[in-house]
Amino acid sequence: MALTDAQLERYSRHLILKQVGVKGQKKLLASKVLVIGAGGLGCPVLLYLAAAGVGTIGIADGDVVSLSNLQRQVLYTTDEVGQPKVECAKRRLSAMNPDVTFETYEEYLTPENILDVIAPYDIVVDCVDSFAAKYLINDACVMAKKPFVHGGILGFSGQALTVLPPETACFRCFFRDPPPKEVAPTCAEAGVIGVIPGLLGSIQATEVIKYLTGVGSLLTNTLLVVHADDMEFARLELPEKDETCPVCGRTPTITTLRMEEEEACEVKGR
Questions:
Q1: What pLDDT was estimated at residue 260?
Q2: Taken in order 121, 125, 130, 135, is the CA torsion positive or negative?
Q3: Overall pTM > 0.70
Q4: Which listed site, 5, 47, 97, 237, has its alpha carbon 20 to 30 Å from 104?
């Protein structure tokens, strides 16, 4: 299908890139991406994927906008406090790019519903701040062989990782189990500088666009760690996935989905 005149103008900066061009833009327009969590990380991910012309974007979040979100969740306004995040995000993003179809899931994902929700999508983006939710996303995507991009933030720091099951290391290959709650501060206790979600969310969105267009090399088997207070970037690499991993290893012991008992951060108020 040929790009319209409006699309040729809208995506012109993509089209002149030899790595993307018309072929890459058509791939973006035909792609489906699910963003789980429409908070600090989810806002920049959603903004950049919608602007890039990803054809279908799913938004999953059961929370409403709160005043404390607005320090970092740049999709929302003060007038939207108390409204569902998924509806506010859809309204804002649809106004920005009418090319994009948005599917909303005003609910938290659970072991019972996550496999059905992720099924139609080409790639999933983990933008939650709950350890329980992160491990659930990891395990579900590994079991479903669904690519996903992990992101996490706290204070002035963050991290990102891309997983392509079953070939590459998963989140559990790097972090086998959630940390004990007593040694991991909650998001409310530790805080986060408002720009860090923008930095890490932009990295996540870049990984998604690279995956969909086939451009460059991904953060597979590589945990990218950012310390913005000193502006230091580090890459923690595994030569290959951990064959003893309980979910993606040679003899997995996690074969059904569950929520981890301890959470280091509440799901609400990302």
A1: 82
A2: positive
A3: yes
A4: 5
